[in-house]
Amino acid sequence: MNRKLDLQFIKKQQEKLLEMRKKIKDDLSKFTEVNPEIKNDFESRFPKMHDDSNLEDEAMEVDVYNSRFSTEKVLEQEIREINQALKKIKNGTYGICEKCGRPISLNRLKIRPQAIYCIKCKKRIS
Prior knowledge:
Number of helices: 4
Strand content: under 5%
Low-confidence stretches: none
Largest sheet: 2 strands, antiparallel
Strand order of the largest sheet: 1-2
Structural class: mainly alpha
Radius of gyration: 19 Å
Number of strands: 2
Shape: elongated
Helix content: 55-70%
């Protein structure tokens, strides 16, 4: 059950993935700093909302930081998945499920270009 993806489709997916990665990095740059020691790792900046020691402001800063940190981790995972898909394009394995080795549906790839599992395997994993 081997399917050869159209080169035009792969090129379009590659462009989409590169665009997605750029947007995510742009979004991350609004509230993080790049970690110079680890590639594609970011560190959330702690927000400074006040100059005095107002406990309510400090609590709000912690809430904002926690929210940013959670968002950072989700976006970093997206970048890892995008990079993995780009690597699969480069080595000719794009669109093949990493779990079962069967083709990932074109509809799934169109919706989620960074998908590495077919729907059936993704449901089993989740």
